[in-house]
Amino acid sequence: MHVSSRVSxxxxxxxxxxxxxxAAMKREGIDVVAFGTGEPDFDTPANIKAAAARALEAGxxxxxxxxxxxxxxxxxxxxxxTENGIDCAPEHVSITAGAKHSLxxxxxxxxxxxxxxxxxxxxxxxxxxxxxxxxxxxxxxPGAMERGFxxxxxxxxxxxxxxxRAVILNSPSxxxxxxxxxxxxxxxxxxxxARPGVTVISDEIYEKLVYPEVEPGLxxxxxxxxxxxxxxxxxxxxxxxxxxMTGWRIGxxxxxxxxxxxxxxxxxxxxxxxxNIASFFMPAIVExxxxxxxxxxxxxxxxxxxxxxxxxxxxxxxxxxxxxxxTGAFYAFPSVAGCRGLRSPAGRAIxxxxxxxxxxxxxxxxAVVPGGEFxxxxxxxxxxxxxxxxxxxxxxxxxxxxxxxxxx
Length: 408
Ligand code: PMP
Ligand code: GLU
Hints:
Helices cover 38% and strands 12% of the residues. It is of the alpha/beta class.
């Protein structure tokens, strides 16, 4: 059967592909350490599960308004006002099937064929394909490892041209595992604010996973809180990472533009695609955003902070790898350039992150994601997820150390 060119030329999600490969090896009985998928190992907090179960039992099984129930939208808007300083109302919010769906909807609503979307890289694997699906051109702005993978205002300014429709900002970052200090984010936002007609898409899915334990004073910053950008920001977030709810598929978008006019367009598209997400999840969203969940979110954050330190300490002991200390999200993104030109014990040539990741999986049974999937500048890197327990981290990193030392 014919497949449309826009879909057939799209790349598959490399993060999901690595996860599937590791799962297939595990089914074959191979003891794989999976550092591939960015998914918390914790279970969803019990009070959130109970709220969904109660709603299901009570018969909340029918369609609800496409962007969510008034209560759930109000809870999201209140969270964005109080925690993020974004001046918004419930009608500026839509609840979607994951932040990924929010991103898709936002790009479809913003981008016309020929428009450009500026993307600081290394960046998450789904941005470029979804920009291109909308007909846009992705303009990568490379963040150097020596600067902690953070781009400069001058770099951003140079990348914005007459066809730029949007700039995607993602702090804390997947795959870099870094967060921009608030004043650096503000400086990037000032660059956008000076360019009328350019929208910020701020992906804040990792906002709660920031580690001042590693970099004192570090905290998340929301571009949509700046008055100059209030009408020019689409804020994306969701439940997956901070609340350990990846499988529930709950995300949201917020855009106060035009008194809700932009959001009405986004909801129109959502209404033709998916309608509302599962209706009995709506009370669970309200519960997740209530003060009852905050201590559990903080406990998970503390665990991730401890793992961030452990992973960095263990990686730093491996002479051929180089990286930066993770300060946010749950990723380490070391460079394997020091292994270039070497061969694995089974004779595989290591030329970049891709060949390193393939040899590591085949010979040492550790799954990591090749860096080239995250941007042209990142071919020499690999991404490790530290969303798993300490024993698994120690086992996996011991295998990585041994494998890397065995290269000749
Ligand atoms: N943005 C980033 C940067 C991510 O890493 C992820 C994780 N898949 C998402 C968005 C989407 O998350 P979800 O669709 O699970 O809400
Ligand atoms: N965001 C996660 C990751 O990068 C989950 C998989 C995905 O949707 O990309 O691994």
